[in-house]
Structures are given as structure tokens and as C-alpha cells.
Design goal:
CATH superfamily: Endonuclease/exonuclease/phosphatase
Radius of gyration: 22 Å
Order of helices and strands: HEHHEHEHEEEHEEHEHEEE
Number of strands: 12
Largest sheet: 6 strands, mixed
Strand order of the largest sheet: 3-4-2-1-12-11
Helix content: 10-25%
Strand content: 15-25%
Number of domains: 1
Low-confidence stretches: none
Number of helices: 8
Distance between the termini: 44 Å
Shape: globular
Structural class: alpha+beta
């Protein structure tokens, strides 16, 4: 082949490669446990801690971010505005919008650009009374404290212990997914799994009374007891290049605050296991609209959230992070986010003040992780971080590829 012909062929190949790369889409994805944000904090824009949280997010500048522990506001919950005229009543799930409008859309430090997001919220199991004595205290508690105390009390814990997911008031510890305007939430294709019964999982680690070895929950309770302590969401988002990415969002219960029956430890295990089953399309899965099936075949995804489990230490039951996620052939787990800021008592990969890696951004295999980290930089003028968790972020590159869910 003549030299000039080889040169032209090489240039053509390089040009085609550049064109293909130009269509790839890079987005920054983050997860951040805000630590118990409540409706009263969000009705105005002047709560100091929320301003510091918003500054952190404005400095990270994510395209997609999951917020854990932001209350899901609903009628009957504390501090939820209720219009006197039903025609002008405010629908539930407005706290994510309030956080965006009152805090993220307002610059929180000199020279810091505001952020705009499209928010998504959905109902949570936390603080929702079950009508059963789920904690076996001998009493069924269905009323939360009025007025709401700033800190947990014995009464609040008694109420939370009988809820489908622990919360001292309805909607506490909810979730919100925020998506930049250049991306599109496929609203009609969102799936939630808040109501999926725990005992639907084959081989579920359902707790037993340690003395009698009888099931901790009665047969009647198990027909209704939910796997999710908050919820599990599949939120499909379309990128500017047309690629659909499924953001798999959850916040499993901590593997703690229980007894020798280990009901929270075992629930945490199975809540984490659910995502491995979902991407494997296990047949037991059915969503809150009664639609069966798992993740669309070949779909790109990102597992997001405070999963309350560390693969190397802590009190999790049978190490579900390692067992189901970090050794999963469908998940890209070769990159571990770390922080360059060293804090006494913390490892570089710890994402919480209590010294564990519990917050995750885990993309599907084939997604390129360009960079990642744990954000520990303090907000302007702050002497401590505004949450007990640090945000985890990753820059992810998605190639153009058809998605079966589109």
C-alpha cells in the first residue's frame, strides 16, 4: 500500500474515533447524606447548616446527586403547610424542590455559581405506622410526638420501632434525586419498590426470636412487612447523547440498633442484595405498580446511596457489599473513591465521621470512571463539616449505545 494511502487511511480512522468520542457523555454523579433535614429547615432559605450543605454541593457541581435523609413532606407530617382551600393544596414531596430553590439556586459564597436541578421525590417507609408491635415492646405505637423534639426521645424511638421503617415522624430520612436541566428524567419509566414484601426474596434472612427460634414477625405481619426501610428506586435519565442511565437509589437501614434477633442487620443485608437481584433480573421482583421484572437487559446503571455497610469493617451481616456488589461482574468496582484530606481516626476511603465506608457511586461495567473522590473540604468559615457523612462523587463517561428501555 502506498505511503500516501496509508496516511489517508490512518487519518480517516483517527477522525472517526474523534467523532465517536465527541458523542460520548461525561457526567458527575454524587451521593450525599445530609443528616436529617426536616421540612421546617426548608421553608425558608436562612438555615445556616443548610446553607453550608448547599455550598458543598455547589463546589462539587454534580449533574446528578442523590440526597439521603431529607424528609418526605406529606399531609399529617410535622411542619407541612396545608392550604385551607383543597384547590390550592400543596402536593406531597416538595422538600427537594424547596432545597433547590431556597439554597442550591442561590450562591452560598462569593463567586460561587448557583445550581439548578430537576428534583424527584417519592414516598418512604420511614415514620409510617404499621399498626403492629414490630419491635416486640408489648405496645403498638401509632402517634408521633407533638410538638416534634429536636432530638430523639424514648417516645420517638417507640413510635419509630413500630413503623415500616424507623423514623420518629412520617417521612423522616427520605430521599431525593436531583438532575441537572441538560438531562431528562424519564418520569413515566420510574419504578419504586417501597412495598415489596421482604419475604418475597428467596432465602431471605428473616429474623427469628433468639430464645424460641420462632419467626420474629407473625405470618400476618410478614404478608405486609416491606423489604425497604425507606424505598428502592430505579430512575431512568436520558443524557444529551441519547443514552439512558438507570440510577438505582436506596438507603438501607443501619445494621445496628437491634438485639440478638438482628432484624436490622439482616434487613440491611437483603436491602443491599436486592440490587444484585434487580440487575440479574430475578423473577420474584415486582414494583409498586405491580409490574414484574428487573433491570432492562443491557441497560447502563449507577447504584447510588448511603448503603450503611462497609466491605472491610463495621457490623454488617455477612458482608453484603463485598458479596453482592464489589465482586459483581456487572458492576465497575475497580476504583475506590478516596479523600486527599486526612482526618485523624479516618481512613482515606471512609465516607462518614464514624469511620466507615458506607456511601457509594457504583456504575455498571463498561462505564469509564475518569475520576472520583470523597469531599471533605469545609465550607467557607466553617470549623466542622455540616453533616456526619461526606459526599462521594465520580466523573463517569457514557458511550453512545442503544438502551432497551428507551
Amino acid at each position: 500500500m502506498p505511503t500516501i494511502t496509508r496516511l489517508i487511511l490512518l487519518l480517516a480512522i483517527l477522525w472517526m474515533a474523534c467523532c465517536a468520542r465527541a458523542q460520548d457523555e461525561t457526567i458527575r454523579v454524587a451521593t450525599f447524606n445530609l443528616q436529617d433535614i426536616r421540612t421546617a429547615d426548608l421553608l425558608g432559605g436562612d438555615t445556616p447548616r443548610l446553607r453550608r450543605l448547599a455550598e458543598v454541593i455547589q463546589r462539587i457541581r454534580p449533574d446528578v446527586i442523590l440526597l439521603n435523609e431529607i424528609a418526605y413532606d406529606l399531609p399529617g407530617g410535622p411542619d407541612v403547610p396545608i392550604a385551607s382551600d383543597p384547590e390550592t393544596s400543596i402536593p406531597p414531596g416538595q422538600n427537594a424542590r424547596r432545597f433547590v430553590e431556597h439554597y442550591l439556586a442561590v450562591s452560598q459564597a462569593p463567586g460561587l455559581e448557583p445550581l439548578q436541578f430537576t428534583p424527584f421525590m417519592a414516598a418512604t417507609n420511614t415514620g409510617m405506622p404499621s399498626g403492629y408491635d414490630l419491635d416486640r415492646s408489648g405496645e403498638i405505637v401509632t402517634e408521633f410526638e407533638h410538638p416534634l423534639p429536636a432530638r430523639q426521645t424514648a417516645e420517638g424511638r417507640a413510635f419509630g420501632g413500630d413503623c415500616w421503617g424507623f423514623g420518629t415522624f412520617p417521612g423522616q430520612y427520605g430521599m431525593a434525586l436531583l438532575v441537572a436541566p441538560r438531562l431528562t428524567i424519564n418520569t413515566e419509566a420510574i419504578r419504586t419498590f417501597r412495598l415489596l414484601p421482604w419475604d418475597y426474596i428467596p432465602g431471605a434472612f428473616l429474623p427469628k426470636d433468639p430464645e424460641t427460634r420462632e419467626p420474629w414477625y407473625t405470618a400476618e405481619e410478614l404478608t405486609r412487612f416491606r423489604l425497604s426501610s425507606k424505598s428502592h428506586w430505579d430512575v431512568p435519565v436520558t443524557l444529551p447523547n441519547g443514552r439512558v442511565v438507570h440510577f438505582l437509589c436506596s438507603h438501607p437501614t443501619p445494621p445496628a440498633f437491634d438485639g440478638p434477633e438482628m432484624r436490622n442487620k439482616k434487613r440491611n443485608h437483603d436491602e443491599i442484595r436486592f440490587w444484585a437481584d434487580y440487575i440479574a433480573r430475578e423473577p420474584y421482583i415486582v414494583d409498586d405498580d405491580n409490574q414484574p421484572g428487573g433491570l432492562p437487559r443491557g441497560a447502563a446503571f449507577v447504584i447510588l446511596g448511603d448503603l450503611n455497610a462497609d466491605p472491610d469493617e463495621g457490623s454488617s451481616f455477612k458482608n453484603p457489599i463485598e458479596r453482592y456488589l464489589l465482586t459483581n461482574g456487572r458492576i465497575e468496582h475497580s476504583t475506590t473513591p478516596v479523600s486527599e484530606i486526612q482526618i485523624s481516626g479516618l481512613d482515606s476511603d471512609d465516607t462518614a465521621h464514624f469511620g466507615l465506608r458506607v456511601d457509594y457511586v457504583l456504575p455498571s461495567r463498561g462505564v469509564e470512571v475518569l475520576n472520583s473522590g470523597i469531599w471533605r473540604t469545609l465550607p467557607t468559615g466553617a470549623t466542622d463539616f455540616p453533616s456526619d457523612h461526606y459526599p462521594v462523587w465520580a466523573d463517569l463517561r457514557f458511550a453512545v449505545k442503544p438502551d432497551s428501555s428507551r
